[in-house]
Amino acid sequence: MLASNCVLNKVNTANFARCLCGVEKFDKAFQIIKVMMKKGFVPDTSTYSKVITFLCQAMKVEKAFLLFQEMKNVGVKPDVYTYTILIDSFCKAGLIEQAQKWFDEMRSVGCSPNVVTYTALLHAYLKAKQLPQASEFFHRMVDAGCLPNAITYSALIDGLCKAGEIQKACEVYAKLIGTSGSVESEFYFEGEHTDTIAPNVVTYGALVDGLCKAHKVVDAHELLDAMLSTGCEPNHIIYDALIDGFCKVGKIDNAQEVFLRMTKCGYLPTVHTYTSLIDAMFKDKRLDLAMKVLSQMLEGSCTPNVVTYTAMIDGLCGIGESEKALKLLSMMKQKGCSPNVVTYTALIDGLGKSGKVDIGLQLFTQMSTQGCAPNYVTYRVLINHCCAAGLLDEAHSLLSEMKQTYWPKYLQGYSFAVQGFSRKFIASLGLLEEMESHGTVPIAPVYGLLIDNFSKAGRLEKALELHKEMMEVSPSLNITSKVAYASLIQALCLASHLEEAFGLYSEMVRKGVVPELSVFVCLIKGLVKVNKWNEALQLCYSICHEGVKWQGNNSFDGG
Q: Which parts of the chain are PPR repeats (predicted)?
């Protein structure tokens, strides 16, 4: 066509772009308009808007933005559809500030936003937990004469649920069905048109999901009956949310009832449905039932994914069946499903708790050779277990490897290091409080753990070396390094290395940290041990004179 100098019209051009985007040839789609323009084709707003839509649907927002800029540069005016598709796509990508700029721009050029435009930004503000902005924006929408519809209210309920504002979401729903009484809602507009707006399956789905995530599963289940009474048929999303909700609160029998109801209605359970049930059954130590559901899953031609296998491996480890978990890992690989970092970490932790740290170390090596990089949680779990098993050199080696190989990319923040791990799993490892208290991934606690263990093992030279490293890596003193100081001082005093012990004590004081009573006990005992009674008495007097404060229930023991 091009060789014969045939100029394509806007339908041809849009179709070519759509097909190219469909096979992920986005650069080609981006260039096609330029090629057509050279051949004499003059694209209009509709052509640009369609190609921008294809790019946005493929989440190629940067290319969509560039095409939008070019559209304006060549004098083609964007319409409400063009602006709305960009605003919606950037909102979904979390780029609310840029979306708001385009909203302001479209109004400044006389292009009136429609209900879809307002709804996209409203939903984005709520998901980002920016409730004041969302409330203000909702009233701007109403003041501009753009009245919210069923889609807007569904988005409002979903956004409020995602922002953790379940009560406000319920208030909007109560207004929609007319049961709110005199209760006011900042996200509802009373008008003549509101009588015609009724909750649909999307509205119910959003509220059921929100209630389940807030562990208000009984309320969510009542909502299922309420929607059926209005003739609104639940879809598989609602059933999935209810099953997952019941599983999360340990009500497995209720979850199974919803599961049977779902299948009777003709909905096929998804991998997510099965995974929720299997995970809950393992956590409830109902192994036989979990395996029965797995068999049912396979019979139904629903292939388990990495999340399913990981839930089963973690569940087996939780009931002390690490050998079966290892076998399941092998089966998982045979079925062509690659384990991820969460899978390996759960199994390494399970092996450690079963006293099989050596197999955990082998698995750690295996995961690295198979292209699955360990992260902070993996290292932390394995270092903990190595220390508990007395494998201090292996623990130190892991710390060195973590620091040199993987550490720099985790300095942005601990959330990058724990991606993929549930909050419950992190808490079960005893790392939640520790990680949330640091702006970046906390390496100091790992050093503190090793220093404590090397000190207790009497390997003072290595403990002091690690202490020096810790001060270089994390100079700010926190509760972890206070514990490391105490362990070192105690070990040095027991070994009669009083000069080094008092050196560390002075370092603590210089940093403005008040040592706990246990530190003074160790120092006094150390002085008595080498018959330095005068110095021991002087230290006792200085404690009383300075009024040193300490924590805990420590007390002087011994003579």
A: 44-78, 79-113, 114-148, 149-183, 200-234, 235-269, 270-304, 305-339, 340-374, 375-409, 443-477, 481-515
